[in-house]
Design goal:
This protein is mainly alpha-helical. Helices cover 38% and strands 7% of the residues. Helix 2 packs across helix 3. The longest helix is centred in the first third of the chain and has 14 residues. It is globular. It binds a DNA duplex through helix 2, helix 3 and strand 2.
DNA sequence: CCCATGACCACAA
DNA sequence: ATTGTGGCCATGG
């Protein structure tokens, strides 16, 4: 089988991690990038999220925020408020696009088969 | 083909 | 502590 798409692996890896985020929890781009040994490539993670809409897999991109716990990419969602509303629907307190008690809801990326 | 932008993060001054 | 720049890789014009 010739799996060669390296960049595709990056996508799958990011999607895999994001898909494993438990409800009521969030993670950061840098955390994922760091997990991928490319902490400088945090932008690529965000870019992968942009492609998450194309993925058939349910990618809870709303659970992915920046290191500050700020909903930077809310504008890329269906609606600018979809991200915040969705997070709150999962029990995450978000005020002014800022996740409250971010440390408590922070989830460390890890591959759980 | 070259330039500019992007859901970011880390480091230096 | 804050501000500014670089770096990362890919996509778009």
């Amino acid at each position: 089988m010739s799996e060669k798409a390296d960049k595709n692996d990056f996508f799958e890896l990011v999607f895999a991690v994001v898909a494993q985020i438990p409800e009521g929890k969030v993670t950061s781009y840098g955390a994922i990038a760091n997990f991928l040994k490319d902490k400088r490539a945090a932008r690529m993670v965000g870019w992968a999220m942009n492609a998450s809409h194309k993925q058939k897999r349910a990618i809870p991109a709303h659970r992915v925020v920046n290191q500050q716990g700020l909903l930077t990419g809310k504008m890329h969602f269906e609606t600018p408020t979809a991200m915040q509303e969705r997070l709150q629907a999962e029990g995450v307190v978000v005020i002014n696009d800022q996740i409250q008690n971010f440390e408590n809801v922070f989830w460390q990326p890890k591959i759980e088969a």
